[in-house]
From TrEMBL:
It holds the Pfam family DctP. Residues 1-27 form the signal peptide. InterPro entries: DctP_fam (IPR018389), TRAP_DctP_sf (IPR038404). The keyword Metal-binding does not apply. This is TRAP-type C4-dicarboxylate transport system, periplasmic component. It comes from the Bacteria. GO terms for biological process: transmembrane transport. Keywords: Signal. CDD domains: PBP2_TRAP_Siap_TeaA_like.
Length: 344
């Protein structure tokens, strides 16, 4: 059975890091999986399901030890570890691989895709497949299965200390964002006063009025408790999200066919489980937040989309968008619109 070992404390983490060696999977029967999520979060539970299923379907020939809650460092550090073979699996946003392939940041383009269906079709495009291939070539890292399959979200919201009802309300808003240049540029174009802060500093920033707002998948609000100090939540559908399972290429290639099948099957099933968890957890969390006085709205994003589009158009004119990107976006928008109109 899978060993559910979660080492805590600085000494334990230091021991773990010092003991990691870049061995291929053929020299061991245990993979190391690092995550940035708490073990009891919806994503954390889905990661545990993945590990359990790998053990089950491989008849315990391959097991996975999980190190949750960024125990092994930041996302950037964990990507380096997976490239070097120190860990074998790291579930994370595909856009974070922009450290190797800068163009991949565009899979999280704010206010560009009108629905998850459009975005999923884009994720299946030759453009994205090309970026994934570059990740393999530059970092020795592969992506398990369909990178759009493991849902995160299920949608994004703006959480603020004051009401935000329209594009006009975004003007001058002190908005926390992650270190993501594309998102920073888009929200700046919308009029926000962007401040880049670590995720761990968000609660304190809102509480001390250093920032007015932050963006997040709605499913993560309860765990970070920001609605204790920011009582306004507006659905934005800023961009659609999933979790890509980065795997060390050498480790995966060294698996037997049966072990590869176990990993692939576990990924597909845990992705379906994650979608169920995200939706049910979100519904429950929203009920709790409403009872605590949180006000929910759905923004009319049409003016926001139009303003954001001016940035993409400017980059297109300047020739700074990734090759083939805009054509791929226009293709999926047209295809989804056509399918909807025909009732498919």
């Amino acid at each position: 059975m899978l060993k559910k070992t979660c080492r805590t404390g600085v000494a334990a983490i230091a021991f773990v890091l010092s003991s990691l060696t870049a061995l291929p999977a053929s020299a061991q029967d245990t993979w190391r999986m690092a995550t940035d999520q708490q073990a009891d979060s919806p994503e954390g539970k889905a990661y545990q399901r993945f590990a359990d299923l790998v053990a089950k379907y491989s008849n315990d020939q391959l097991t996975i030890t999980i190190f949750p809650a960024s125990q092994l460092g930041s996302a950037s550090a964990m990507l380096e570890q997976i490239s070097g073979g120190l860990i074998q699996v790291f579930p994370d946003a595909l856009a974070d691989a922009s450290k190797w392939v800068p163009d991949v940041q565009y899979v999280s383009s704010p206010f560009l895709f009108q629905s998850r269906a459009q975005w999923v079709n884009f994720m299946h495009s030759d453009v994205v497949k090309g970026w994934v291939g570059q990740i393999h070539d530059k970092a020795g890292v592969d992506i398990l299965g369909d990178p759009s399959q493991f849902m995160r979200g299920p949608y994004r919201v703006l959480v603020s200390t004051k009401p935000v009802h329209s594009l006009a309300d975004i003007g001058g808003l002190k908005l926390r964002l992650a270190k993501d240049k594309l998102s920073v540029d888009v929200w700046t174009r919308l009029g926000a006063s962007v401040q880049v802060l670590d995720w761990s500093a968000v609660y304190d920033g809102l509480d001390r009025h250093m920032i007015d707002a932050m963006t997040s998948p709605i499913s993560q609000l309860e765990s970070i408790k920001v609605t204790e100090v920011a009582k306004y939540v507006a659905r934005t559908d800023e961009y659609w999200q999933s979790v890509a399972f980065f795997v060390n290429h050498k480790a995966y290639a060294a698996l037997s066919p049966a072990e590869k099948n176990a990993v692939d099957r576990a990924y597909a099933e845990s992705s379906a489980y994650a979608a169920e968890l995200e939706k049910s957890f979100t519904d429950t969390a929203i009920d709790k937040m409403k009872k605590s006085g949180v006000q929910f709205t759905v923004l009319d994003t049409k003016p926001i989309v139009q303003q954001a589009r001016t940035l993409y158009d400017a980059r297109s004119t300047a020739g700074t968008l990734p090759k083939g990107f805009l054509a791929a976006v226009q293709s999926v928008q047209s295809n989804v619109t056509t399918a909807s109109a025909s009732g498919q």
